[in-house]
Amino acid sequence: MNRHVRTAIFPVAGLGTRFLPATKATPKELLPVLDTPLIQYAVDEARDAGIERLVFVSHPSKTAIERHVMEDARLTRELRARGKDDVAEALSDAALNPVEDDVRFVMQTEPKGLGHAVACAKDHVLPGPVAVILPDDLILGRQGCLSEMVEAYTTGRVGHLVATMEVPEDRVHRYGVLSVTGKEGSIVIADGMVEKPKPEDAPSRQAVVGRYILDANIFEALATQVPGAGGEIQLTDAIARGASEFGVGGFQFSGRRFDCGSKAGMLEATLELAMDDPECLAILQARGLAEGRRAVAA
């Protein structure tokens, strides 16, 4: 089995309704956590993991995402002309270069679910397994979650590897949940998964979050996948169908995950990063928030 992960898919076509009116004109993936947009964290994580091709599954109304992730030569020149070389350099380093980087943009014009979004990228991926990154699942740690997963996948046995975390019983209905059969190091072995089960029906509390490494066969499964929860093509349903043939594992990552698809999660992530910024930390301390934040984290 080819275990070299060369492609990452970024499903970014969603409307971001939970952040309206902020997302009426600004894609949710461009909302900043402190001073960096969510999509930038996702791109940096993919590049750090050695990904060769980045495929963005977007929507025609969200052209701002492409403008952000791609290098803006005109802006760089203008910044340098104003003597802001350090800013220009930082922006250039963070951006994707249309000549040096392998980047594709694909449109998902109808909201048919995450599985459908991944299927839209089929004709644009490199041979072998593919990674999927959901930008509004921000995972912060000393090593990127996808880098950890690529290492585990390269030496592992399962065909589909998903990032998982243990959640309280009253929250399992928000996630896809693994049916766990065993454990091998940082990977929990599963024989399937259930999308958004009721607490009494959940096979475990191992919840799937927004990082996946999937055998290339996932595209065949998605081509025949019937709509599931919410009437959408669920990626977890297609993964579960291949459990017996390809194997499914849940990777227990070392970082901390923030659900930045919600206002509470976005605030929590912002506060976490503000603690490492001297200027922001001074404000938090002045308001008596820093000590409480540290106590909660501990």
UniProtKB/TrEMBL annotation:
Family: Belongs to the UDPGP type 2 family.
Domain Nucleotidyl transferase: residue ranges: 13-271
One protein family per Pfam: NTP_transferase
One BP annotation, GO: UDP-alpha-D-glucose metabolic process
Protein name (record): UTP--glucose-1-phosphate uridylyltransferase
Keyword Nucleotidyltransferase: yes
Keyword list, A-Z: Nucleotidyltransferase, Transferase
Organism of this sequence: Marivita geojedonensis
Keyword rRNA-binding: no
InterPro entries (UniProt xref): GalU_uridylyltTrfase_bac/arc, NTP_transferase_dom, Nucleotide-diphossugar_trans
Reaction equations catalysed: alpha-D-glucose 1-phosphate + UTP + H(+) = UDP-alpha-D-glucose + diphosphate
Record-level Gene Ontology MF annotations: UTP:glucose-1-phosphate uridylyltransferase activity
Record-linked SUPFAM superfamilies: Nucleotide-diphospho-sugar transferases
Enzyme Commission no: 2.7.7.9
